[in-house]
Amino acid sequence: MCEQNDDTVEINNTDYFESYGQLSVHELMLKDKPRTLAYMEAIQKNQHLFKDKIIMDVGAGTGILSIFAAKSGAKRVFAVEASNIAHTARKIISDNGLSDVITVLDERVEDIQELPFGVRQVDVIISEWMGFYLLHESMLNSVLFARDKWMSPNGTMFPSHANIYAAPCDMRELFNDTVGFWQDVYGVNMSAVIPDVVSNLLSKPYVGIVKQNRLLSKPVHIHSIDCNKISISDLQTLTNSSVYQVCKVGVLHGFCLWFDVIFSSTLGGETVVLHTGPDHPETHWKQTVILLPQSFDVSEEDAIPVTITMDSSQDNHRHYELSLEFGE
Amino acid sequence: MCEQNDDTVEINNTDYFESYGQLSVHELMLKDKPRTLAYMEAIQKNQHLFKDKIIMDVGAGTGILSIFAAKSGAKRVFAVEASNIAHTARKIISDNGLSDVITVLDERVEDIQELPFGVRQVDVIISEWMGFYLLHESMLNSVLFARDKWMSPNGTMFPSHANIYAAPCDMRELFNDTVGFWQDVYGVNMSAVIPDVVSNLLSKPYVGIVKQNRLLSKPVHIHSIDCNKISISDLQTLTNSSVYQVCKVGVLHGFCLWFDVIFSSTLGGETVVLHTGPDHPETHWKQTVILLPQSFDVSEEDAIPVTITMDSSQDNHRHYELSLEFGE
């Protein structure tokens, strides 16, 4: 506690920390420049999709995408945000003089019975819905629900497409840092803890930065999603079997996954891509690695047939379980 | 989940993550080189205090300080550790061939009724007990309890002394990062969130790195602790009133606190100091800043009389509440 004479700092209510906790997540996302600048650029360079159009922003957060759309000339924007941050978004929109254009709807998009102003259809759905390796903790289901209920037949999803990529990878730095450290700690052998450290590492996919030079093959494109066409049921299970042609000597510790999303329209305009791969600037999604229970030495001669399956969890449809099997 | 053919990764029990969580805290502390190397150096350079002596290590963790003591020739070391990590420490000690010298006592030091092998007194108590700004979440009370109950009249506490320092500081980078960011977010005015951001920042002391050039006066030594003499009751409330002579133009945002601990003995040997101040390499304690509800422009002419009080919390004696008052 910080107290100063009669000007004591006080905390007003218990909601406060929750709301700040949520704000810090939005801060992290806003400070992710490749992410936010890709949306800004996509909207600015495709003003023909927004000018005088009706837009829905699913999961609007602080309202930044709605504001970009309004600045690109949208006639009306519905900023759908079910969490507490909706109140903040409304204030931000007002402070930016855009309350006449943007209406914040503070409910789940699935719960909207009718849109204000007698609107029946929207022309563009914008949303930043992507999770780790695209699908984990993503909001894509909600965005597709909104599309099926509210999108005009000639409407556009923005982003319009998404791709998932995979490549075998050498994670020696991770293992050196987290496992190797314990072998000699200031001259003391602490390898007794290594089984626990390894079990923890292998218990879940690893989310972190993988350097481009640690990929052991060219990226393999394992899934394409057309946001204008895919159905929610298509997202239940995604499986891909591919042969990964090793391109350098290394130690295979796992398979690295990442994605990109594409902003393009059949109505023309400029295509913008948001990349999250090892060959592009770091984003808050980083990369996701399925670590193998044991490592293998590999070299240029090797071709590795692997099936990667992403299964929507029974308990939480926003969570996926990753599995990996050698063989096609 | 990562699955591979018939070699599926399994998680065995719920204790597991707890124990890993705890391990990661020990990893952080072990990887703090200024901290661990100061203890190693202090013990290695003062072998006369350890050779053929009986040592108690309070809060032994992974057992590293006990092992340093054993390697410096201790006759017997009692490694007192009440948490689960005690089992790991025992395995590490065994792997390093030191089970004959080091005995792990997996209980709170306050609960020890008698020491093994008929030992009545110890010659040296080693412990890494320090918390943020020395006292917050520290184990000093337990270490003093151990001293009063088990230390020989000619015994040595190691570290033997501690000092707390303070200086007014300019935190412009912190305010720019956490407050200024919201003023212009990709051209959008998000200053609506600033009151919440500021309230959150001021609601508790800030723990982070303060650069030496952001201090606005020379460090003022506000408390000295002689670990061989101080009593537990002396730690209830620590107050210091000092005048801080501003040495440069800047903006006063708060008062920075840090500490050092000293390893020295009346029995001679080499003094070693573990520093955690802005003018020394970063440690996991970083620095602690009491932020003021408002900032002030200051310049070389200014002398700032301030009383800083550290009050042991009624609810949790390991927590302190900081308060700051202008005036002496």
UniProtKB/TrEMBL annotation, chains A, B:
Entry EC number(s): 2.1.1.319
Record key words, sorted: Methyltransferase, S-adenosyl-L-methionine, Transferase
GO BP terms in the entry: methylation
Catalytic activity field: L-arginyl-[protein] + S-adenosyl-L-methionine = N(omega)-methyl-L-arginyl-[protein] + S-adenosyl-L-homocysteine + H(+)
Pfam family, one: PrmA
GO molecular function: histone methyltransferase activity; protein-arginine omega-N asymmetric methyltransferase activity
Top-level EC class as recorded in UniProt: transferase
Residue ranges of every copy of the Protein arginine N-methyltransferase domain listed in the record: 161-326
Gene3D superfamilies in UniProt: Hnrnp arginine n-methyltransferase1 (2.70.160.11), Vaccinia Virus protein VP39 (3.40.50.150)
Domain of life: Eukaryota
Full protein name: type I protein arginine methyltransferase
Source species: Acrasis kona
